[in-house]
Specification:
By secondary structure, the protein is α+β, with helices and mostly antiparallel strands. The protein has helices spanning 2-21, 76-82, 170-181, 191-194, 234-237, 242-245, 300-309, 325-333, 367-376, 379-386, 419-428, 457-472, 484-488, 543-553, 558-575; strands at residues 56-61, 90-91, 98-99, 113-120, 128-130, 133-135, 145-155, 196-203, 206-211, 260-266, 270-275, 291-296, 314-315, 337-352, 432-433, 439-441, 444-445, 447-453, 476-482, 504-510, 578-591, 594-595, 614-615. It has three domains: 56-86 and 258-336 and 592-615, 3-Layer(aba) Sandwich (D-Maltodextrin-Binding Protein, domain 2); 90-238, Dipeptide-binding Protein, domain 1; 345-584, Roll (Dipeptide-binding Protein, domain 3). It has a ten-stranded mixed sheet with strand order 10-11-12-1-13-21-14-20-18-19. Strand 18, helix 12 and strand 19 (476-482) form a beta-alpha-beta unit. It comes from Herpetosiphon aurantiacus (strain ATCC 23779 / DSM 785 / 114-95).
Length: 617
């Protein structure tokens, strides 16, 4: 234990030195972004070496988008960049919802949502839902049945317009839904489309969604555009083969309806934007800053260095981490920077390969082994030593201050650090110590590959500690630090996560106002059969979990959902396809010459209000 403690100290000290010195991390990823400032306005302009000038703000990010066609992206970097161009039509600030593109959020109370009974018999064509199961074959019916059908109607705000001057209409939202449904579009999930009877245009500014009979959804007001963030321009893409959009020029320069339009996208380097003159807020003088540059830099340490040198003005959660807290606190003590630490709904976790997608046998098919790993990892020590004690361990797929967390916390096992319990469970699962201390079963040593993203000092330090903890109980862990966009999060069978070609993987999920129960549904396991359209990267499937999770989604009132959500979390906590580690603290920094930047705990976009930011004169 003394030797491991010394190694722990070395890991922590190294991270602190890197953060303080801005020396960067050794990676195999090509360097992205310039070490010089990119204070440019027009595409092709030479990047200078001066800090940003009046009218320009440079946002630094340590990850770059995989594509700017948001429908086909699972990258947080894409979400952040597109927020300035195609903002979410409904935001999720402070554990609630706010309409952006719509005049109001439709509800049953204001008449925007209604429910009617419809008859389903063997002459009915289309899917329907009985006891939360999606059914496509009416031959199972013994006679006609009456099922509720939900209809939701949205009305667009006045003045919402594409950057080319074409009005955004209901047709663009219905077209986005068509793209989501198209098998040629590489989307993460088609859940909403699969539970849609139809979309219907009322007029140019109004459209409706009809759920399939029997489907009741607690977030019915989010079912516009097939579950997309917003519309897609039918007048531009309507005649284009959906399968080709992701590889076309459009995926680098999507049409804007938000405060900014894209002038230039240099992959792995920068996105240069200017104010969209057709933005609906232009009459109110928005956006207040005329030009924005998203600059992609290799590592968090280089981000910090460029923030200090004046080459970057603003950084959000994809660029800074708690590992840099000592240096950031020093900056906060000065007069130039505003540093923000905000508890986030982003949670770091370790996925286990319950069932691999490549057919390779996995020791983590056994729940006892997954539980053993949980007991073997000292999460509190990780938090104290790597994260400066500024966050808390998580035991479910949502923070313990979430409205859906069990009111009786004792029903959730905290898996407190207990190596002896871990060894006991491993022995019960048939693993015994070999001559070299590594566990063996059926002649095979317990050796696994553990993947996480390169260029992230905090994750790499956590992974190194996990490696040490598991070695102490006889598990040999090989660390794999890989590129996020092009390797770990890559779509399709070649992706480490989507293809389920891993044993353990460390990355983050985002919770929010709605519980993350869909993450672990059987239907969300990415496979070739569903075009890898799912995010249950563990391969976990438990019908008992599906039953209560799906039922919880069909109840509209929160009070009625709580018992079911508690059951779902208890099943998850017992089966443990994923080990939650800790609630991430969002870290942000901005020069004090910029006002308006403020992180929100439940927003997936750090720059959700970028159109209101101002530069001091």
């Amino acid at each position: 234990m003394f030797e491991r403690s010394k190694r722990l100290a070395a890991i922590v000290l190294t991270g602190a030195i890197l953060a303080a010195c801005g020396s960067g991390t050794s990676t195999t990823q090509p360097t992205t972004g310039s070490s010089e400032a990119t204070a440019v306005v027009e595409p092709g302009t030479d990047t200078g070496s001066q800090p940003s000038s009046d009218g320009i703000v440079i946002i630094g990010m340590s990850q770059s988008p995989d594509t700017l066609f948001g429908m086909e992206s699972q990258s947080s970097a894409t979400t952040q960049v597109l927020n300035s161009v195609q903002p979410a039509c409904v935001t999720t600030l402070s554990y609630d919802y706010q309409p952006v593109c719509f005049a109001e959020l439709p509800t049953f109370e204001n008449g925007g949502a209604v429910e009617e009974m419809v008859t389903v018999d063997q002459s009915y064509t289309g899917p329907f839902v009985i006891e939360n199961e999606l059914i496509t074959d009416t031959s199972v019916l013994t006679g006609p049945i009456e099922l509720p059908q939900v209809k939701v109607t949205w009305k667009l705000i006045d003045g919402i317009t594409w950057e080319d001057g074409t009005p955004v209409t209901a047709d663009d939202f219905l077209f986005a839904a068509e793209l989501y449904a198209n098998p040629g579009t590489k989307v993460a999930s088609r859940f909403t489309i699969e539970h849609t009877a139809k979309y219907e245009k009322v007029d140019d500014q109004t459209f409706s969604w009809y759920g399939v009979p029997g489907y009741q959804d607690s977030t019915y007001f989010l079912n516009y555009a097939g579950g997309a963030l917003g519309p897609e321009p039918k007048h531009v893409l309507g005649s284009v083969d959906a399968a080709t959009i992701g590889g076309s020029d459009y995926s680098s320069k999507p049409l804007a309806y938000g405060p900014y339009k894209i002038d230039e996208y240099v992959p792995q380097e920068r996105v240069t934007m200017s104010a969209n003159p057709h933005y609906w807020g232009a009459k109110q003088g928005l956006p207040k800053i005329s030009n924005v540059i998203y600059k992609f830099v290799t590592s968090e340490d280089q981000i910090l260095q460029q923030l200090q040198s004046g080459e970057i003005d603003v950084v959000g959660q994809i660029g800074l981490s708690l590992a840099q807290a000592p240096s950031l606190d020093e900056l906060q003590a000065g007069a130039e920077f505003d540093i923000q630490y905000v508890p986030a709904t982003v949670w770091e976790h370790i996925d286990f390969a319950v069932e691999r997608g490549d057919g390779v046998a996995t020791p983590f098919a056994d729940a006892k082994v997954r539980q053993a790993v949980a007991y073997a990892i000292n999460r509190q020590e990780i938090i104290d030593q790597i994260l400066f004690g500024k966050t808390v361990a998580m035991n479910s797929f949502m923070p313990d201050d979430h409205w859906a967390y069990p009111s009786d916390a004792s029903v959730i096992n905290s898996y407190a650090f207990d190596p002896s319990k871990a060894i006991q469970l491993l022995n019960e699962a048939g693993w015994v110590a070999g001559d070299d201390g590594i566990l063996v079963k059926d002649g095979e040593p317990f050796k696994v590959e553990f993947f996480t993203t390169e260029g992230n000092d905090t994750r790499q330090a956590v992974a190194q500690l996990v490696q040490e903890y598991l070695r102490d109980v006889g598990i040999d862990v090989e660390l794999k630090f890989v590129a996020g966009t092009d390797v770990l999060f890559k779509n399709g069978s070649e992706g480490i996560l989507a293809g389920r070609r891993y044993d353990m993987a460390l990355y983050a999920w985002v919770s929010g106002p709605e519980p993350s129960t869909p993450l672990y549904l059987c239907s969300q396991v990415p496979t070739a059969a569903n075009g890898y359209a799912g995010q249950n990267n563990t391969g976990y499937c438990n019908p008992d979990y599906d039953k209560v999770a799906l039922e919880s989604q069909s109840i509209i009132e929160r009070a009625g959902r709580l018992p079911l959500l508690s059951q779902a979390q208890q099943i998850f906590n017992r089966d443990l396809p994923t080990l939650p580690l800790y609630q991430r603290i969002n870290v942000g920094a901005a020069r004090k010459t910029i006002s308006g930047f403020k992180l929100d705990p439940t927003s997936q976009q750090d720059f959700y209000n970028i159109e209101t930011w101002e530069l001091a004169q």
